[in-house]
Amino acid sequence: MTATTQPYTGARPAIPPSTVAQGVLWAFVAVNLLVMWTLFATSDGGKNTILTIAKFFGMHVALIMMFQLLLISRLPFLDRRIGMDRLTVWHRWVGFTLLWFVVAHATFVILGYAALDGVAPWRTFFALASVPATILGMSAATIIVFVAISSVRYARRKMSYETWHAIHFLLYAALLLGLIHQFLEPATFQTSTWSTVYWWALWALVLTSLAMGRVVLPVYRNLYHQFRVAAVVPESDNVVSVYVTGRNLERFPGRAGQFMIWRFPGHNRWWQANPFSLSAAPNGRSLRLTAKGVGKTSSGLRNLRVGNRVFAEGPYGAFTAMHRNSEAMLLIAGGVGITPIRSLLEECGGNIVVLYRAATPADAVLFPELQALAQARGARLHLLTGRTGAGQPPNTPFEPANLLHLVPDITHRDVFVCGPPAMTNAVLRTLRTLRVPKRQVHAEKFGFA
Fold first, then answer.
1. pTM attached to this predicted model
2. What does each C-alpha distance from 321 to 3, 247, 350 come to in angstroms?
3. Could you name the CATH architecture of 321-445?
4. Fewest beta carbons within 10 Å, which of 3, 191, 239, 289?
């Protein structure tokens, strides 16, 4: 029998945390656009109309690049409220916007000086290539174009994550070249004292945020906690759990449902890192990750030695009960996506239903733990097995009618979904069809890059 549930209002904030964070982020963009447009309108134009347009695009290139850095700075305030997966998607599309603004800026610069000197654009291109400030700008633009091409889906699928990540590191070179280029362009960025103060203060803010989120905070946490491997436990032929201990773990700020980026110095090369969810709620004594061996790094985890040093970045992600809106929850997992779902079940109380999709019962990783937790929490647990589409009627557990049959009160529940992209997308389509309120839907997708 399914209990009748009502929306939970006791602990729900007046404004959802994600709305607050997005409001702060877009306010940052809006305020700086307004300031930049004011500086542009009150400054002298270029030597001709075309160069004035080039200047307009150039100022936007600088602001877009700063926004790009802010999106990947991994600041806890943004990450825990918006989520790295959504921030990464925004970063991708803002990156392509940056590409077109860079191309537009370069094109108008060449056309503007060609019109000014009365020569062909190609002659102007080679003439500008001899100017130091322009060489730096051209080099930065070339790197941005190269990285953008490598991020197109077709190209991305042809290379490993490590290769793609290494190519992205070139953007730091583009950033340095762009900063020097901006410094050498007084006609655009140093038209007044206020303009100079504004641009360099903004750069200082963004670069400090990037350094804090990507370097200072991870280094500090690893020095403070001194993570080490405490145990390695095979869960099946291709799945292993790694228990990590350390100092002062009672002060570790992780939540059930979050993930960390794990490195194992001495076992793997320093650039080999993997994002694995916490498969148990942090308890102040140890952390646990559970991974399926799908690549060289994850497959080698079962060979880790007890006492091996661990360098862990995080915790990251907004897939937590912080975003819960109602007392009742539906937790849906597929494959190894059970890891954050299992930790959420451990942390959360209330009226909970768990749907675990696996090909066979033998593929249901951590299922005995789920059974024990479900019994302790009073939750209903359903193991959904079999090949999708097989049999008569077809095995389609996440079709609207079938999901509604399993969870009749689904529209009153917070739904947390984690699994392979195809399954996650199928569930999200069904939730839209069933008109589950968007604020009650929380999805974690595999796809760190």
1. 0.85
2. 21, 26, 12
3. 3-Layer(aba) Sandwich (3.40)
4. 3
